[in-house]
Specification:
single chain, alpha+beta, six-stranded antiparallel barrel, 4 helices, about 25% helix, elongated, disordered N terminus
Length: about 350
């Protein structure tokens, strides 16, 4: 019995010895630093890209009309037609205008003759100076009427102010139009095309004339091309509250008024103290918040709650919870637990 007992105790001691030695070999493995990519937190970029949609328009779209009322005699072009500078686009029936001009000229002839007669009588002392001044005033009024009638005669025809495209036609032959009514809209091709984009007041305030931007118009090309801010509205649209920004486009035969496009323009922004980290550093995201692993001096990680801001390219803005200079785990957060010791692998943001 004593021999069996001694053998049993020896067996148990052997098992315990191997069990303990196995534990001692595994414990260091649990405490081995875990390789993890880290990054030093930096301030968010001072620039950001605004992306917006707009419509292609000719840079100058001129409204044309007659300066006098009358009946339309002819309209020579249709919408979409290309015209050359100086071409006659439309004309009024000139009979009334011509009659008015002839009447005005006849009245001028009469008043000039009357003035010369009164002037001669005044020199001989037969009429007063007041009578002479009255005749002179009548002659000047007649000259003004002739000038007005001549202007009406010249402007009874609408001529193209530049090379362009007829964008809108609102009249037909025989129609009666009022003076000042827009009857044609001419897109002046010599001035080029622009992409007109509505922007909020906050975004528009950061855009300046002369800034460069990338514009993509799928109907023209899949590749973006460079544009320049050419004009900026000084007043917001009353209905939408947006400001219209015009981006001057490079010459391209495929551009047409009405095409849709998008613009990307890099603008500066006011510094608000935000920092940025790679999107892969965030985990446990919920309701605009998330967690990051912050690395302390002993290379130990500690989960910290942060407030998430905008997504910019491949980074996330952090509006609170982190400060410049903090070191966080950039990749591999799924392998870590609070309190783990890591072996930092530095990486660029």
């Amino acid at each position: 019995m004593a021999g069996r007992t001694q053998k049993s105790l020896a067996l148990i001691a052997t098992v315990l010895l191997f069990g303990c030695s196995g534990t001692e070999e595994e414990e260091p493995k649990d405490r081995d630093p875990i390789p993890a990519a880290t990054i030093t937190v930096q301030a968010a970029s001072q620039n950001e890209t605004i992306t917006a949609a707009g419509t292609v328009r000719l840079r100058r779209e001129t409204e044309l009309g007659f300066t006098t009322s009358g009946q339309v005699a002819s309209v020579r072009y249709e919408e979409g037609d290309r015209v050359k500078r100086g071409a006659t686009l439309a004309a009024l029936d000139n009979s009334t205008v011509s009659a008015n001009l002839e009447s005005a000229q006849a009245e001028l002839d009469r008043t000039e003759a009357d003035f010369e007669r009164i002037k001669s009588l005044f020199a001989d002392g037969w009429v007063t100076k007041a009578r002479l001044e009255q005749a002179e005033a009548a002659m000047r009024a007649a000259k003004a009427q002739v000038n007005a009638s001549s202007f009406a005669s010249r402007t009874s025809h609408i001529h193209a102010p530049s090379n362009g495209i007829i964008l809108s036609r609102n009249i037909d032959a025989g129609q009666i139009v009022n003076a000042g009514t827009t009857v044609l809209v001419l897109g002046e091709t010599d001035k080029g095309f622009v992409l007109k984009v509505p922007l909020t007041d906050a975004d528009a305030s950061r855009v300046r004339v002369g800034m460069r931007a990338n514009v993509t118009i799928s109907a023209v090309s899949d590749k973006p091309f460079e544009a320049v801010v050419s004009e900026k509205d000084g007043r917001a649209d009353e209905q939408t509250g947006t400001f219209e920004i015009s981006f001057l486009l490079p010459s391209n035969e495929r551009l047409r008024s009405g095409q849709l496009g998008t613009v990307d323009i890099e603008v500066s922004r006011d510094s608000d103290g935000s920092v940025a980290v790679p999107a892969t550093a965030i985990f446990g995201v919920r309701s605009g918040e998330g967690l990051v692993y912050v690395v302390d001096e002993k290379k130990r990680v500690k989960a910290r709650n942060v407030v998430i801001g905008k997504l910019t390219d491949d980074s996330l803005e952090i509006s609170s919870g982190l400060a410049e200079g903090d070191v966080v785990v950039a990749r591999g957060v799924e392998k870590l637990r609070d309190g783990n010791v890591i072996k930092p692998i530095s990486t660029k943001k």
